[in-house]
Amino acid sequence: MVKAVKAEGQPKRPMSAYFLWMNEVGRASVKAKNPDASITEVSKKCGEEWRALDDASKKKYEKMQQVAKEKFEVDMKEWLKNGGEEAMKQAKKETQAKKDKKAGRG
Fold first, then answer.
1. Which residues lie below 8 Å from residue 8, measured CB to CB, with a gap of 6+?
2. What is the pLDDT along the chain (106 residues), one digit of tens a residue?
3. Which of 66, 73, 68, 78 is CA-nearest to residue 9?
4. What is the pTM of this model?
5. In whole angstroms, how far apart are CA 91 and each of 6, 16, 45, 87, 96?
6. How many CB atoms lie within 10 A of CB 12?
7. From CA 58, how far away is CA 87, in angstroms rounded?
8. Rounded Cα gap, residues 22 and 43, in angstroms
């Protein structure tokens, strides 16, 4: 997986509906049921519970995700308009320079 270049002040992408659910309800309920579970086991159980969740419950988190996504898109457009594009180009140059140096090309 290629790590995305992150510029100073760039808005963060919104969490998915699954992560919103996991942070609010999922992780705590799984940890309560399985107090000795490792992180990977908790993640697997959360995935199972999310898949088993009824559509009405999922809709709440999907709606929250949609609102967060719309806010992100507005924030991103605003950031790009106010010099974000230039900051992104600079961040990409710096990242490429680090890669070149690490690879012994610089």
1. 87, 91
2. 556 667 667 788 899 999 998 888 888 888 888 788 888 988 888 888 899 888 998 999 999 999 999 999 998 888 888 877 777 777 777 777 777 777 775 5
3. 78
4. 0.67
5. 7, 26, 38, 6, 9
6. 10
7. 37
8. 9
